[in-house]
Structure formats: structure tokens, C-alpha cells
Amino acid sequence: MNPFLSLARPSISHLPVYLPGKPIEEVAREYSLNPDAIIKLASNENPMGSSPKAIEAIKQCASHTHMYPENSCYLLKQRLAETLGVAFEQIVVSAGSNELYYLMCSLYVQPGIEVVMAKGAFITYRIATLLAGGTPVEVPLCNDTHDLEAMFSAITDRTRLVFLPCPNNPTGTINGNDEILSFAQRLPSHVILVIDEAYVEYRENGPDFRPLINSGVKVVVTRTFSKIYGLAGLRVGYGFMPQQLAELIDRARPPFNVSIPAQQAALAALEDTDWVRMCRDINREGYRQLTDAFESLKLNYIPSEGNFVMVRVPKAMQLYDFLQRQGVIVRPVSNYGYPDHLRVTIGSKTQNARLIELLSEGLICAV
Ligand SMILES: Cc1ncc(COP(=O)(O)O)c(C=O)c1O
Hints:
Blueprint: H1 24-31, E1 39-40, H2 52-61, H3 74-84, E2 91-94, H4 96-108, E3 114-119, H5 124-131, E4 135-140, H6 148-153, E5 159-165, H7 177-186, E6 192-196, H8 210-214, E7 219-224, E8 237-240, H9 243-252, H10 260-271, H11 273-296, E9 301-302, E10 308-312, H12 316-325, E11 328-329, E12 331-333, E13 338-345, H13 349-366
Parallel strand pairs: 1-11, 3-4, 3-5, 5-6, 6-7
Antiparallel strand pairs: 2-8, 7-8, 9-10, 10-13, 12-13
This protein binds pyridoxal-5'-phosphate (PLP).
Pyridoxal-5'-phosphate is lined by residues 44, 96-98, 122, 165, 169, 196, 198, 224, 226, 232, 237.
């Protein structure tokens, strides 16, 4: 028995562990592989790396890192406000969007409070809820997609937060714009809707939440620089929301939560719109490359709106292991209720080709 666990808050003992994609170095050590030859398609990172402008910005600020960062993230917030067409005061910058889920839960969740989410949604919502002592109310997905009617019915007087990822990770699915907007509008006034748009830049024409926020509907939209902007290692994300909520999150936020390199790189990445467009195009081509291959291999997949796809395979864990031994890391998703699927991040053309090649080989061994 861990002597520290008995002293901790009771909710800690039920806390699931977040299982990240396996790091390249770990796989290299485990299978005696050359790390440079390993392809990681397990954490929905950007295969193109980060914008050269962001890398230059990181170099430029290297000599300032003995100083604390600007606590208010002034320049980044100003630029985000202009880009998004919202007020400066409506934005909160965080250490990745994950931090915003924890902050929302630390503000609104305690024992007796319920948080509505899907069973099969991004797992951090559940962890953050449990950590705050609350009760996750998990609504099954319907056709791998959030069932907004069932989620609405799951709301009680004790509900404070509803989490809705658009699109969801790991399924890559999304609800229709009108459906999401009318769901948000119907929510009772004691409930705050957290819309997670970590992959929004890969899509076109997502729902516009700004009019709802400005009309007083309680919505927070979270986004990240970890995905298309390629800055996962720096930990920077943001949310836009009603100004009065941003003020509260700012009070709960740890001081200096976003480092100098993170702020500077995010600013530069935001400016580099050509690079973002290129990454979106490459992702689209990669999606076609992978899904065409899945079809010719007679593998079913879940159509995805993100930079990843879930594919149904025979003997998923054996295939995962086979791929890993050959130096391609993908993600098993049985902890999300999909024991027969693997989630693969869309890589570069060469990375995808290697995955397809190994998948064809592995399938012959697996079936
Ligand atoms: C749906 C979803 N939301 C949020 C995140 C977290 O992103 P961040 O790196 O900004 O904390 C991820 C990362 O995988 C994700 O898939």
C-alpha cells in the first residue's frame, strides 16, 4: 500500500493514468533500434515539424530565458484577439489546452458535481474531473460520434461542465455545425460547455461560437499550438470565452504558466499562415493516401476530421507490437473502448508509405 495514497484526497485512488504515445527513445531502447529510423505516428504530432519562423523565434529568445516570462502573455493575446475577432479580455493562454480542462475543473468541480462527457472522448476530461473530486457522467458514443441528445438528457441540477471535442480524439468524428450550436443554446444556465477544438485548423467551416459567446451563452472554446502549429513540446494553448470567465480562470492559473519560448514561438507560428496551409494540404493528401490503402487492404476505418485515423484491424495488439518492432509506433485504443482498432497519426508521404508497407506485411502474419 502506498503510504502517500491514504493521506491523499479519496478521488485520487480512482484516477486513471494518461497513456501517452510511446516515445521514440523508449522504443529504440526496448528493441535496439536506431532512433533516427523510428517513425512515431502515435501522438497526433505534426510530421512537418514546426514552422521555421517559430524555430527562429525560439533561437532569438534563448538568451532571455533567465527572466520570467510576461505573465499576461500580452503580445500573443493581442495577436490572437485580432486573428479571432474577439476581445483581448476574452482570451486565456495556457500550458497546452490540457491545462484549461484542469483549470475549468478546479474552478467548477468538487464532490457532488457532475461533468457530462462521452465514453470514448479524449480521456483528459475524465482525469481532470476525477482529480477535482467530481463525477464523470459518461454517455456512450453513437456511430462513433457524440450523441448530443443523450448528453443533453444526462444533464442534471448537479452538472456544471459539459465537454465536447470537435473533432473527437481518438475517433476523429464530429457533429454537424447546426446540431452543435443548437445544443449549446439549449443548455441550462448552470452549465458551461467546453468545446475542444484542438484540431480545428485541419477543417474548413467549423461552427462559429463567437456570436453565442457574445450573446451570453456559457461556452469556452479551447485550441492548441500542439497540432497543426507543431509546438507540442513547448506546451501552449489558449481559449476564448466570455470575459467574466476569462477573469476567473486567470485567477486560478499558475503564475508564468507559459514560457518565453512558448509565447514567442506561438506568435511566430500564428503569423506563418502559408506554412499552416501547407501542413493542412499535406494532411489532406496523407489522409487520402492512408484511407485508399486501408480500402485496398479491405480494412474499415472511421472517417476522420483530424490528423489521425482509426482503422479496424485483426489482432490489434499483435499488429501494434509488430509495427513497433519494425520501428513504427501507432496507438492502441482499447482504453477508449476500441480493442479492435489502432489510431494512426497521418504522417508525411514517406512515413505513411512505410506504415502501409508494414501493415500489409503484418496483416499476413496476423490473420
Ligand atoms: C482532443 C484533444 N484535445 C486536447 C489535446 C491536448 O492538447 P495540448 O497539447 O494543447 O494540451 C489533445 C492532444 O492530443 C487532443 O487530442
